[in-house]
TrEMBL record:
Binding site for 3-amino-2-oxopropyl phosphate: 7, 18, 191, 213-214
Site (Transition state stabilizer): 151
Name the UniProt record assigns to this protein: Pyridoxine 5'-phosphate synthase
CDD domains noted in UniProt: PNPsynthase
Gene Ontology molecular function terms on file: pyridoxine 5'-phosphate synthase activity
Length: 245
């Protein structure tokens, strides 16, 4: 079954807006785990407008499922990850001022850089993942530089879903099969939501984990966090049943 990692960036955004420690990210993370989250993700960006670098240590103390830290591998980010050793680090090719992630790595052009950074994380015993588009060359490149997993950037799928769901998912299914064939672990995320998740996950053979934040935290405003996590878990169970059927 695909695991659900809850991205708490948007919870941190609310916290930061008043300069105090409320909502408290550690409490929200432990509550999410109790409600059924199978992982906690944060993506600290250089502007620290939502998750901050010092959240990594605080979350590492309490998260018992899987802590996944996403970000661009600049020196400060690498130091924070190496000193806190989360279960997984997901490297994302974001520019410093980027509003949100909008593309995967060019794992061929950046091969030397990625190889060196990933080797450091591997030596520290941290599972590594590279954010990629559904492109066989980039997946092969991720394997060659030593990543354990890839995370598919699912923004384009989500944006096309309403107009043409079959067309939207097709390149991801193909890329997923390819990743499976060459032995890469497979994660996915960005703009997944209650409408598109079951369809997506049911067509991704071997998908191991999704990280979901923006839509999930927005849904929690209406349904509450416990119900919302149950609803996302239920989408993933339905997807598994569809794959078996
Ligand atoms: C890599 C990725 O897709 C997520 O980490 C996403 O970027 C988080 O989104 P925000 O930082 O916009 O909340
Ligand atoms: N890696 C994707 C992620 O963590 C959450 O992305 P989104 O659901 O906030 O778009």
């Amino acid at each position: 079954m695909v695991r659900l990692s809850v991205n708490l960036n948007k919870v941190a955004l609310i916290r930061n807006s008043r300069g105090a420690d409320y909502p408290n990210l550690v409490k929200v993370a432990t509550d999410c785990e109790q409600f059924g989250a199978q992982g906690i993700t944060i993506h600290p960006r250089p502007d620290q407008r939502h998750a901050r670098y010092d959240d990594v240590a605080a979350l590492k103390e309490v998260v018992t499922t899987e802590l996944n830290i996403e970000g661009y591998p600049a020196e400060h980010f690498n130091q924070i990850v190496l000193s806190n050793r989360p279960h997984q680090v997901t490297l994302v090719p974001d520019e410093p001022g980027q509003l949100t992630s909008d593309h995967g790595w060019d794992t061929v052009a950046k091969a030397d850089f990625l190889k060196e950074v990933l080797a450091g994380f591997r030596e520290a015993g941290i599972r590594t993942s590279l954010f990629v588009d559904p492109d066989e060359r980039m997946i092969e490149g991720a394997k060659e530089v030593g990543a354990d997993r890839i995370e598919f950037y699912t923004g384009p799928f989500a944006h096309q879903f309403a107009a043409d769901r079959a067309g939207a998912v097709a390149p991801f299914t193909r890329a997923c099969r390819f990743a499976q064939e060459i032995g890469m672990g497979i994660n996915a995320g960005h703009d997944l939501n209650l409408d598109n998740l079951t369809y997506f996950a049911s067509r991704m053979p071997g998908l191991q984990e999704v990280s979901i934040g923006h839509a999930l935290v927005s849904d929690a405003l209406y349904y509450g966090m416990a119900n919302t996590i149950a609803m996302y878990r239920s989408c993933l169970s339905n997807a598994a049943a569809l794959q078996e059927g």
